[in-house]
């Protein structure tokens, strides 16, 4: 009987230890394609919007003049250009006319004040997020009409172009801020 009791006690003790051992949390679900694209866009947004907010309104017309800067966009034109392009990329992904004014290459002329420009930029990111919410594995590579009316491209292509384009202009306006004695917000962290 004692021989039988010892294995039973060991088995019960092992079960008791297992009951006290915390279970590992279930692995987090992998992000969806849309979530991944939106996360990447949010990083750009978190860099560019504070940059636009950091430039004093009286410097919005600034463009470098010394060196190889002939004909470059002013600060405000750079910011409005990114916002207008965001709207165009979003409209292509959604296969609709832009839900916001895009104006010419430098954005709508009617948007002038710092508050208007920052709102326009924020609205363009909201529109891009709305567009990226619709991107799935099923429609990712489907061709949609180019926002500039010439040819077609994939939703993935337009989603990644929007981000690359935004970072290109981010790099340019960082220089504009530094030339005006302003440390870009991302460099202050």
What does this entry look like structurally?
The protein has a single domain (35-188), classed as dinb family like domain (Four Helix Bundle (Hemerythrin (Met), subunit A)), CATH 1.20.120. 58% of the residues lie in helices and 3% in strands. The chain is built from 6 helices and 2 strands. It has helices at 2-20, 33-54, 75-94, 114-132, 155-179, 185-188, and strands at residues 143-145, 152-154. Strand 1 and strand 2 form a beta hairpin. The longest helix has 25 residues, at 155-179. The protein is globular and about 55 Å long. The chain starts with a helix and ends with a helix.
Write the topology of this structure:
Layout: H1 2-20, H2 33-54, H3 75-94, H4 114-132, E1 143-145, E2 152-154, H5 155-179, H6 185-188
Helix pairs in contact: 2-4, 2-5, 3-4, 3-5
How many DSSP helices? 6
Radius of gyration in whole Å, from Cα?
A: 26 Å
- Strand portion: under 5%
How many DSSP E strands? 2
Q: Could you give the distance between the termini?
A: 71 Å
CATH architectural type:
Up-down Bundle
In short:
The chain is mainly α and 189 residues long.
Features of the shown structure:
189 residues; Four Helix Bundle (Hemerythrin (Met), subunit A); 58% helix; mainly alpha; two-stranded antiparallel sheet
């Amino acid at each position: 009987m004692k021989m039988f009791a010892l294995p039973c006690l060991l088995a019960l003790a092992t079960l008791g230890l297992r009951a006290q051992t915390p279970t590992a949390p279930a692995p987090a679900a992998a992000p969806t394609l849309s979530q991944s694209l939106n996360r990447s866009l949010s990083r750009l947004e978190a860099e560019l919007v504070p940059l636009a907010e950091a430039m004093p309104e009286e410097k919005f017309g600034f463009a470098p003049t010394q060196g190889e800067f002939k004909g470059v966009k002013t600060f405000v034109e750079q910011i409005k250009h990114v916002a207008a392009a965001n709207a165009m990329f979003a409209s292509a992904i959604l296969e609709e006319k832009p839900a916001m004014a895009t104006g010419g290459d430098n954005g709508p002329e009617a948007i002038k004040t710092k508050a208007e420009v920052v709102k326009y930029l924020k609205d363009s990111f909201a529109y891009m997020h709305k567009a990226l919410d619709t991107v799935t594995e099923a429609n990712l590579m489907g061709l949609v009409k180019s926002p500039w009316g010439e040819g077609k491209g994939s939703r993935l292509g337009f989603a990644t172009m929007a981000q690359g384009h935004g970072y290109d202009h981010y790099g340019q306006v960082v220089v504009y801020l530094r030339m005006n004695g302003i440390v870009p917000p991302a460099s202050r962290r």
